[in-house]
Amino acid sequence: MYNRRKFLQNSGALALGGMALTGTAKAFFGEKAMHPVGIQLFTFFSDIDNDVEGTLKKVAGVGYKEIESAFSKKGGYYGMKPKEFAAFSNNLGLSWKSHHVLGAPFKMPAGAKMPTDAEGKPMVIPPMRNLQDNMQELVDEAAEGGVEFLVCASTPITTSEEIKSSIEVLNKTDEACKKAGIGFAYHNHDAEFHTVEGQVPYEVFLSQTKMKMELDLAWATKGGKDPVELFKQHPGRFPLWHVKDLDATKEKILPVGAGTIDYKRIFAAASTAGMKHFYIEHDFPADAMASITASYEYLTKKLGVGILTTAEKKGLLKETHQQLAPQQMMQLNKIGGALGKLKTVHAMTDVTGFGLLGHLTEMAEGSGVSAVINFDKIPLITEDLKYYISNKSVPGGTGRNWDSYGDKIAFENNVDTYYAKTILADPQTSGGLLIAVAPNAVNEVNQLLTEYNLYAEPIGSITALKEKSVYVNP
Predict the structure, then answer these.
(1) Burial readout 23-42 (b: 16 or more C-beta within 10 A, e: otherwise)
(2) Domain assignment present for 360
(3) What is the pLDDT of residue 3?
(4) CATH code at 152?
(5) Among 160, 189, 327, 432, which residue carries the largest CB count within 10 Å?
(6) Which residues 6+ apart lie within 8 Å of 431 measured at CB?
(7) Structure pTM?
(8) Do both 277 and 311 map to the same domain?
(9) What pLDDT sits at residue 351?
């Protein structure tokens, strides 16, 4: 008889699954996910050229996996050649997916001032190459670097003649990119949605070109357009997105989740849009790293809710973390029924008040097996959990959880035992799904998750029964 024990013993793989999208985009993320999180490096325009490697290491440290490059004051690609920058990024765990260029020679907008440097002086920047004057050179370099898309960041649209001239350049670039084997897209601001001499530039671009579009969701919203309606009107036309938030006046840019844009609704339409990559962006933020961290944490589904809610009670919760726990707790698991129909899903459970270790221990004991998890693969709601733990922001339920199953857990060498058990026994509210999957069916399960706009983060494996129920590796 093929019993439950044998069934789970044949799983071999454990995954911490994400939730249905309800105000978070983490539903798309994970090692096998279709949509890892990207960052537009223009967010760091004021600082990145001072320390390219240090900046990108910090970006990767937050959790970002893909990058879209922009103009560099060093020239070239942050002072490098295309292949060099691609290899440099890849060595840091970042995949270079697209690059921004200007459509025409740069001109400061009327009344605008050049951004200042660290000393408060106007920045001095080298000449900016553009598609009007340097199209083939830029296309060739993009192809050399292996990016998927060359993107026109902006182009003149203040008169009908400018719009006509821009369309000629954009169409020529689109053809050149096709010959080079890469995609071409146009990035909008809000001006493209305003009428110019009787025509709306964005509508003209859509009708008189075949290029793809990189929709800046915030600028489109500010311009009075509904991104979801654009997706419906032009399905498959929007493989790239820029993701940022706006305040109620639509004048101030904010980290994602801190503003008014309904990203639950927008991300639910990702397949209609044809979205392949999306990039967090914040134009000239006061603190770029704080902004992208807040955005990433808002967009991710991770452990640590109990610690944050305890920190809030103690008055220790940082302002950038105030929305993380409420947003996560409002999410629901809606995929269980569909996963349960797959023969390759051998067990699953919600991660709730008993903590991840508690639920995993019950799963293992009930099937006569043991489990191994890799602590460095556990998604955390914020890297600042150590700060909160060191300030004694630990729920009482964590200790009670540990008392009930701590003797069934073994920590391998080089694991910070106190930190790890505080995280893994942390009481969760809507903490995700713990799923045991047959090793040869990971792709099948991920395909189903993708169809539901979900993700799975591989965290460990099932083994034959050992002395302890769960072993925690570094």
Answers:
(1) bbbbbbbbebbbbbbbbbbb
(2) yes
(3) 39
(4) 3.20.20.150
(5) 432
(6) 303, 305, 328, 350, 351, 352, 356
(7) 0.64
(8) no
(9) 78
